[in-house]
Amino acid sequence: MGTNPFHIAVAIGGVQGLVLGVFLVARGGANRRANRVLGLLVTTVALDMVFVYLNLSGVAARTGLFLFITDPLYPLFGPLLLLFVLYLTEEGYRPRRRMWFLSLPALAELALLVPTLLVDRDERLRYALEIAGGGALGELYYLVWVAELAFNLAMAIIAVGVVRRYTARIKTAASDIDHLTLPLLRAVLVASIVFLAAQIVAAVMVFFGTASVTATFVALYLLMGVCFYLLGYWALAQPEVFHPERFVVPAEHRRKYEKSSLGTSDLDALGQTIEEAMETHRLYLQNDLRIADLAETTGLSTNHVSQVINAKFGKNFYDFVNSYRIAEAQRQLTDPSQQHIKLLAIALSAGFNSKSTFNKVFKEHTGLTPSEFQRNGPTV
Predict the structure, then answer these.
(1) 134: confidence class by pLDDT, cuts 50, 70, 90
(2) Which CATH number describes the domain made up of 5-242?
C-alpha cells in the first residue's frame, strides 16, 4: 500500500507543506501576523496529510504510535482560517477573548486523544478496527467527525462574510479596488467551503457504506492541500498583496463619523464643493484616486467627504468616482471622431486601470457593454 501513487502524493504534499509552513511563520514584514497564522494553518494541514499517509501506508497499524494523533488538529482548520482573514483585513487586529472559545473543539478532541495514548498498541488497534468496522465507537467517531467538518464549514462561511465587509469598506475609500479585493483569498475560501461540504457528504456516504473511505478522502486531502499551499506560496511571493490598505478609513474614524451629523444645507454646500472639485480638476481621471486625495483638494476631512457622498449622492466613494468615469467614457464612445480608438484606450483615458474593470463597471451603470453602447448608442 505504501507504493500507491496517491498515497505517496499525500506524503510529498505533507512534507512540502511543513517546509512552506516554516517559511510563512518565519516571514517578517508588515504582514507578519497574518503570515504566521497562515503558516500555522498550512502546518496543521501538512501534519494531517503526513499522518494520513502513515495510516494509509500501514505504518500506523504496524507501530500503533500514530493512530488518532492528529485528530485534535482538524478542528483548528476553521478557526485558523478565520483568524488569518481577520488579521488580513483588519489593520491592527487583536483577537477578542471570545475567539479563544473556537479552540474548544480541538481541546475536546485532545481530551479524547489522551486516553488512547495511555493504552498499549493492541488496544489502540482495537479502537481503530472498531471505528473502521462501524461499531458503536465507529458511529460516535463519524458523528464527531461530521460535527467538526460542519464547525470548520461555519468558520469558512464567516470568513467569507469578513472579506465581503472588507470589500465594502475599501469602496468607501478607493476608486480602484481590483488589487485590494484579495481575489485569491476569496477563491481559496470558496474552494474550502466546497471541499468541506464535499467531505461532509463523503463522511455521510462512508458512514452508510456507500463510498470508499480511502479513495474519497485521499482525493479530498490532496485538493485541500493544493488549495492552502497555493495561498501560502502566493503570500510568500507577494506578501504585500495581503496587507490591509492604510488609506481605508480607520475604525475609530468610522465610529466618529457615525456620531457626527451634517444638516441638509451643509450637505448641499459640501456636495457642491465636491462636485466642483471633481469636474474642475477632473480628479476621476486619476486611476488610483483615493478619498484622501479628494479631501485634500476640497479642504474637507475624509469623514465629511465620505458622509456627503453617502448622504447627498447615495453612493460610496468607489461608485461615485466611477460614475464620472463612465460619463467620460460615454462621451468618448459617442464622439464620431473617436470611433477608431480601441476600447482599452478609452478605458484608460477615462480613469480605469483595466479593460475588465471598465467592462464590468460600465455594464453595471448602463446595462450595456461598452461595445454595445458604442455600436447602438444610449437609447438601446
Answers:
(1) low
(2) 1.20.1070.10
